[in-house]
């Protein structure tokens, strides 16, 4: 049979199943594009919230990593160093949330995140189980996740430069 005999003719009154499926896919594609267009600003805000939250905990003296930070830089008094790091994190977080000097703030955040890897060098017994760098402790996993935060910070800085 020819195509003309097997196809149901389209009318002006009702859309065909194919055109409604296409419209649905187009709408879904536009929705996904809308979310993706906002992904880096959302990432910037998410980073800001993380920095703000962690900083507030340090300033308040309730951070679960207070002793880890103090042990990583034992030559600096924890009584002022940990809260100072907290204030820095609060300022970075607020600046990221409200998008103030994003490139500069992202660069400072990246340097700060690089500093967190000192734990792996200065406190290997805390970061690795049985001295094996392939066997991370909970502390080691906590530090290693900063690779993701570092990459996110760099992505935010890169995106902001292009705008």
Describe it.
Strand 1 and strand 2 form a beta hairpin. The protein has a two-stranded antiparallel sheet with strand order 1-2. With 163 residues, the chain is mainly alpha-helical. The chain has one domain. 18% of the residues are buried. The chain is built from ten helices and two strands; from the N terminus they run H-H-H-H-H-H-H-H-E-E-H-H.
Oligomeric state, counting identical vs distinct chains: single chain
Average pLDDT, to the nearest integer? Answer: 88
Percent strand: under 5%
Number of domains: 1
Number of strands: 2
Any descriptors?
163 residues
Topology:
Blueprint: H1 3-6, H2 17-37, H3 39-60, H4 66-72, H5 78-98, H6 102-116, H7 118-122, H8 124-127, E1 128-129, E2 132-136, H9 138-144, H10 146-162
Antiparallel strand pairs: 1-2
Helix pairs in contact: 3-5, 3-10, 5-6, 6-10
In short:
The protein has ten helices and two strands. The protein has 163 residues and is mainly α.
